[in-house]
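During the no-cost extension, the postdoctoral fellow (Dr. R.K.) reprocessed legacy sequence entries with the updated structure-token encoder. One reprocessed record is reproduced below for audit purposes.
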Amino acid sequence: MTSATRRIAIVGVSLVVVSAAHWLVPMDNPFLHGLHLLLRKVFLLPVLLAAVWFGLRGSTVTAGLATALYLPHVLYQWGGRTIENLNQVGELASLWLVALVVGVLIAKETDARNQASESRRGVLTALSTALKVREKETERHSERVMTMARRLGWAMGLRGAELDQLASAALLHDIGKIGTPDRILMGKGPLDDRDRGVVRRHPELGRKILQAVPSLKEVAEIVYSHHERYDGSGYPRGLEEAEIPLLARIFSVVDTFDAIVSDRPYSARLPIEAARHIIARESGKQFDPSVVNAFLEVPIGDWASLLQSAREPEHRLPPRNDTFLHGDTELERVS
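Re-encoded structure tokens follow.
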């Protein structure tokens, strides 16, 4: 059953229950008459739920159904209860007023959210395009990592906004490298200490760029933390364990995974099994053990399929040495 179907079922059941209770509760008993009056107000509940979930159309359709279920009771009790029945007609009018007002307000709120979402997508597209122009290989890496971050996030139970934030951070995690000189960013040899220090500034620069966009402030914090290590030996703040945002801990695993299984100027790609072995070995050191466990539980075929769909043809490179370099972190190559 889909989410929309469940919501329709909830609205429908609530309508039937409230209507049945309203019909069955007698009006003659003074105490039960008070309950009868209360039940009229409860008709607002399915209307409000429909407005929140389905907007103006949902609220008006539900109000119409409520009227169809409620009006026969009014007509049935009409004789000799003029004031009471006029009150019931007033309740129906109030029901429609609420359905229309709330439905319109929800529709406006939905439109505003959609516009904000479109604006956010536009900013993401502009920033990712700027990254692509700056350095083509980094952009391909970011696209792959975004796809794999979504898969790992889903495996860890992320949904909705959190999953979107993780994907956005993965797409833009290297945006700070726009400020890294070409001789460093596109160099083929190992970095010296000075150049390494320049590279280490990119999370902070990325954070500054993304914080300028109000809708990306949460994403900025993930980008700022994506080179932190679980054991506290990372940068720029030396955070450890739960101090590191969860989404950054998730992202760092797939970021490293993609770097291992992709050709780089300084090393050839390794098989997925070798990459899994490296990541498992770094559990509790570079990576959060719970994230590593979730990563290892994802079938290898899933990772292979995601890589195949997101990877452009790449020229295989001969191994340069016996170490794997990820950014400015060295991990021993697994044969």
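The longest helix spans residues 82-134. Residues 3-112 form one domain. The remaining legacy entries will be reprocessed before the final report is submitted.
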